[in-house]
Amino acid sequence: MIDKEMIEAGVELYYDSLHESSAEKVHEAFHANARITGYLHGDFMDMSVDQFADFVASQQPSPAENNVEKVWRITSCKINGATAAVMLEETYLGIKFVDTLSFLKVDNDWRIYNKLFHVVD
Questions:
Q1: CATH number of the domain at 3-119, out of 3.10.450.50, 3.30.1490.110, 3.20.20.150, 3.40.50.150?
Q2: Could you give the maximum distance between any two Cα atoms of the chain, in Å?
Q3: What is the C-alpha to C-alpha distance for residues 28 and 14, in angstroms, rounded to an integer?
């Protein structure tokens, strides 16, 4: 699989983690040292991967169990060597987000190293 396809698969794994409320998939998608940072309805949020995984897992029943449609699309993907930046539009828990996902390639595996998010009004 080429790098772009691996990164796109990483984005899909990330979104599946949200859709399925899966802490395991969050940990698969993110590098262990990653941060998840942004503003949610004006409140600054900054989480570790463990904190984000716990939040995702707490969303019960999951969006998948509630038959919520998956809504996400990659708007850009720029790869530079062993780093990449992906812009993603998604809907999660009824909220529209624009995410900037920074990927890092370690041992031939692409993982999200940083997630910056913005809520679209």
A1: 3.10.450.50
A2: 40
A3: 8
CA 39, CA 65: separation in Å to the nearest integer?
Answer: 27
Give the closest residue to 27 by CA, choosing from 57, 5, 4, 2. Answer: 57
pTM of the predicted model as reported, rounded to 2 decimal places: 0.94
pLDDT digits (tens, 9 = 90+) for 79-98: 999 999 999 999 999 999 99
Q: Where are the domains of the chain?
A: 3-119
- Judge contact between 78 and 84, C-beta under 8 A: yes
Share of the chain above pLDDT 90, in %: 96
